[in-house]
Amino acid sequence: MEKHPLHLKIPDLQTSEEVSDAVAKQERLTNETIPNDPNERIEAYMSRLENIFLNPDERVKERNLEMLRPAIYDAFIIKPEQVSESYFELQQQVARERGQPVEVIPPEVRKQMIDILIEDQKHSLDQWLDYLTSDDVAYPTWFKYFVFRNITKLSQFDKTLGKFKTRTETTVAPYPDIYRAPLAKILDIYEQVAKDNNKLKTLDIQTTFSKKFPKLYAELISESLAVNIEGKEQVKGEWIKYNKGDRQGADALYESMQAKGTGWCVEGQTIARNYINQGDFYVYYTYDKNGQPIQPRIAIQMNDSQIGQIRGILSHQELEPIMSDILDEKLKDFGSEADSYKKKNVDMKHLTEIDHKTTANKPLTKDDLLFLYEVNSVIEGFGYDKDPRITEIRNKRNLQEDLPVLFDCTPNQIALRPEDLNQNSVAYIGSWSPEVFKKLPKTITHVYESFPDKKVFLKTIETDSAIKTPVQAKKELLNKGIKFYGSAEEILQKVTFSKENKEYNLVSFSVESLGFPNGATTKEIYDKAESLGLEICPAEVGPLLRLNYLDQPNNTYLVIAMKSILASDGSEHVFGVDHSSGELDLYARWDYPDRRWDGSRRFVFLRRK
Predict the structure, then answer these.
(1) 266, 332, 343, 413: least surrounded by Cβ within 10 Å?
(2) Phi-psi category of 53—alpha, beta or left, where left has phi over 0 and alpha has psi -120 to 50?
(3) What is the mean pLDDT of residues 105-120?
(4) Whole-model pTM?
């Protein structure tokens, strides 16, 4: 009998408590007995995980992840009391080496340092959670489970030693980066064994399969990083299209990626086939010295008629600057579907221009600085993460010299502490709380917890004379390319819009800044906000804010503090506005009075007049 790859890799999994619970639950639901067979028992567990983390109903999946994320953090994120003294000693040593000796780190600074490393760990773990639960990632459920189970035991990848550092409960480092191509190659090996256990008799497959995940993953990452891409200065080439559903085309796509160093997950045959099942796949190959198109440089993956992803071959799969004109020309073939990607291309060209100026020690204009620090809008690229050049260029700048230029003020008009605020202050960068909010003078136009990554949300919006009904609101949202998630489209139909003109003065606070570092229920949050002079919002603020907040920073989410609206399935929801993966979304967030929100969640309130 063929054995499940998880049974081969984790023999005791099928007798574990979580698998036994899944089996018992499925037997109760189906009133059928599951055979005492490892394959059947493991698949029952996979089915349960799939229903929770990969539910086809986006609303259910989002709700499940929201409920489980605090528990996942509790299990895998370092606690403040676990941060050892050696961490602070190391920071002091680093400061000394920079010529900035620090004899004593004050308690409040220690807390800030701990908060930052915890947030970094959460962010790195969220990247794995979001990646493995994404519909765009064509891995089978059992492989996603196996990867997550292993990755939570690893610290950062050491490129010099070619291996992962071990993670303990006192590890302060974030979780490792995602290397997609090596993961796809591991899946290929496991899939071969899954389809035919006799493959284990083949020496090379047996040797590879027997390696523990951290060792195999590290070896494949090192192998991938060692590949030198030939002819990177070459631009001339041609687009090749792999048609949806073409199995031979998928295998040709896979073969064309081998030893090319793209980092794309189609370096794995299984993933290449899965993507071709979803839609067409376009690759731009540049010519070699013999005039043959062999080096992949740009990939466009389609989900039926929609663009799913565009990837380049730089770090985090960003597009090479010299390839931007090639992509620009190709995007014309996709009409309005490519509009959001055209903005990314413009951003990458501007960033390249700033990079060249920086290298040549040429001054940056105010517009360059506004763009670099993302004051008015976020810089969007084609990779999975922020273009690393943004941080590299910022680190070369003198922020104290740039801030007055950015804010059109003198240095003494920028307050860095609450006690520095006065009637001449134009900008404030410092701790944020309702108490600080009350001290802000009317002259303040820029507020940040830290610059430029944590801009404080202070916004005034007005009702729109063209939006007096849910139908009109939906039309405007769709016209601006807003996506609906959860029950947002449904509960929008129950919103009452103002007939007369109104102005809403809005402000945002995290649950922690309201006095709940360990999270709080909806009722506790609203009661505390009221005691601080804040009010919950009318429901129309949700869609109106979404329409008026098109420059929302990427990877940020705001919950609208409002009375919940009942959906058709009996669940209650509040609106949320989200910007992630290049999409501006209107969410419906699951809610009820005793629902707990973690300390980092940010709510939007009305500022009481």
Answers:
(1) 332
(2) alpha
(3) 84
(4) 0.60
